[in-house]
UniProtKB/TrEMBL annotation:
It holds the Pfam family Pyr_redox_2. Belongs to the class-I pyridine nucleotide-disulfide oxidoreductase family. Residues 10-340 form the FAD/NAD(P)-binding domain. This is NAD(P)H-quinone dehydrogenase. NCBIfam families: PRK07845.1. Keywords: FAD, Flavoprotein.
């Protein structure tokens, strides 16, 4: 008798950003038959328009900043005039080249990801997907692709991301009033960029464009920039912004942004007008969950349109999972990937660890950067968590002195009992590279004393973290 081949578990994924990509790849690796529907490009917004382009732009801004401050370390650039006298050259940014590099790098990463999916055996379908009940995805891929119109699946993973929020009174025109996705088609540096919104997106672009040489006005509806971050960290960034010549307007909403010829005019809540050459609208995002059949399939959404998921990314319909910015979890690429993994592992019965949002590390890529993990000082102050907070200024660190890093600090939040590390903030250049030992400490429930036993190289910025942990030792009574 011929052996019966077990039918493969069929997974359909809608959206190829970090959430959908990870789900598709891991699903195929675990032996499922996976179809991924993506209507733009694999890698999603993260790779094509959001994370990768913005961080590539920021890399260039960082270099421009190092060049501008090199003189403080005794390194000078000069050219000679016709009488052989040294001239100090200006730093010039070739904006067309910069944006071309950004787009090329993003496309290459998207191509590499598509190749990985294909190697793993994932079927990638280009088109717009929507649910038709809990087991079918319909793909609108244009008149030629009838064969993929219906995908039957045992498990569906929705990872459709989010889109920039648009204000009716400040409609992006793609030329002068822009969303963050439209910045990379500019061929000239904005002479004066008005940034509306001082969340992470607004702060990162304001920081980068200022370092690249644009005049920048940052309109913040709150009392301080980066309202979601540690207050001390946000204060440092705001001070650096102002010192670098950025115009920070606090406590004002942009009620309206209009174009007047070659200018943009932002009208503030108090009636003041700010004129610039370009305006970046960074006022948040809305999930792409409309009209894709979620409600009729029985999937529960929040009032804001986000998909309600549990810690293994399962929605209110048992065989439908969701990952990434379309869900009620943190809108971070790392979280989207973790949800994508959790979804397929759970659906396919593999080992799965429910996601603990409390321990997610994140980073704001301003200059300096702000990296954060775990419980924050605000939670100790408002009584949500018991604990001790200590801070070590970067300017006392020998390596920071050598490199002329004056702005920043390391902060640790530890439990009152044994001094277990429960949270941390690092404000420093490349803080994103310094947060990992603290994440590990939190994940492994290390105490400040255990952390302080680890050796840091001397001199190093990471030495500050060990010094701070050491200073938090509490002698036994
Ligand atoms: C400017 C900016 C910078 C950021 N920087 C960082 C950072 O440094 N680090 C970090 O961790 N996070 C960062 N984020 C957040 C990060 O971009 C998101 O959390 C991440 O992109 C979410 O991934 P996702 O899987 O939800 O999908 P997305 O990356 O949003 O991709 C969703 C995909 O779904 C597709 N899609 C949508 N609807 C359909 C449909 N009906 N059918 C088929 N396909 C569909 C879209 O074309 C898109 O490709 C940043 C965000 C912004 C705006
Ligand atoms: N480095 C990173 O990891 C990174 C970078 C960018 C975004 N993100 C993710 O995206 C999330 C969203 O960040 P975001 O900054 O895009 O959105 P956000 O919603 O956090 O911030 C938007 C800000 O705009 C303000 N605003 C709204 N309307 C305004 C108006 N008319 N005038 C002035 N201000 C106005 C809001 O008060 C808010 O502070 C972040 O929490 C983060 O998870 C991550």
């Amino acid at each position: 008798m011929a052996e019966k081949t077990p039918r493969k578990h069929r997974i359909a994924v809608i959206g190829g950003g970090p959430g959908g990509y990870e789900a598709a790849l891991r699903g195929a690796e675990l032996g499922a038959e996976v179809t991924l529907v993506e209507h733009h490009g694999v890698g999603g917004n993260a790779v094509l328009t959001d994370v990768v382009p913005s961080k590539t732009l920021i890399s260039a801004a960082e270099v421009a900043s190092h060049m501008a401050t090199a003189g403080e370390l005794g390194v000078q650039f000069f050219a000679r005039d016709d009488k052989d006298r040294p001239l100090r050259p200006d730093i010039a940014v070739n904006f067309t080249k910069l944006n071309q590099r950004i787009r090329r790098l993003a496309q290459k990463q998207s191509d590499d990801m598509l190749a990985s999916l294909k190697r793993a055996g994932v079927t990638v379908v280009q088109g717009r997907g929507r649910l038709d009940g809990p087991n079918t995805v319909i793909v609108d891929s244009g008149p030629k692709s009838k064969e993929f119109d219906h995908i039957e699946a045992d498990t569906i993973i929705v990872s459709v991301g989010a889109s920039p929020r648009e204000l009716p009174s400040a409609k992006p025109d793609g030329e002068r009033i822009l969303t963050w996705k439209q910045l990379y088609s500019l061929t000239e540096m904005p002479e004066h960029l008005i940034v509306v919104g001082s969340g992470v997106t607004g702060a990162e672009f304001a920081s980068a464009y200022r370092l690249l040489g644009s005049e920048v006005t940052l309109i913040s509806s709150r009392d301080r920039v980066l309202p979601g971050e540690d207050a001390d960290a946000a204060d440092v960034i705001e001070e650096v912004f102002k010192r670098n010549g950025m115009n920070v307007v606090s406590g004002q909403r942009a009620e309206k942004v209009v174009r007047e010829g070659e200018e943009v005019v932002a009208t503030l809540s108090d009636g003041r007008e700010i004129r610039g050459s370009h305006c970046l609208m960074a006022v948040g995002s809305i999930p792409n969950t409309k009209s894709i059949g979620l409600e009729s399939a029985g999937v529960e959404l929040t009032d804001s349109g986000h998909i309600v998921v549990n810690r293994v990314a399962r929605t209110s319909v048992p065989n439908i999972y969701a990952a990434g910015d379309c869900t009620s979890f943190f809108p971070l690429a790392s979280v989207a990937s973790a949800q994508g993994r959790a979804a397929v592992f759970h659906a396919l019965g593999d080992e799965v660890r429910p996601i603990n949002l409390r321990n997610v590390a994140s980073n704001v890529f301003t200059y300096p950067e702000i990296a954060t993990v775990g419980w924050q000082q605000a939670a100790v102050e408002d009584g949500t968590r018991q604990g001790r907070v200590a801070k070590f200024p970067l300017e006392q660190n020998p390596r920071a002195k050598m490199q002329e890093f004056k702005d920043g600090f390391v902060k640790i939040v530890a439990g009152n009992d044994l001094g277990t590390i429960i949270g941390a903030v690092v404000v420093a250049p490349r803080a994103s590279e310094l947060i990992l030992p603290l994440s590990l400490a939190i994940e492994q429930r290390l105490t400040v004393d255990q952390f302080a036993r680890a050796w840091a190289a001397y001199p190093s910025l990471s030495g500050s973290i060990v010094d701070l942990a050491r200073s938090m030792h509490m002698p036994q009574e």
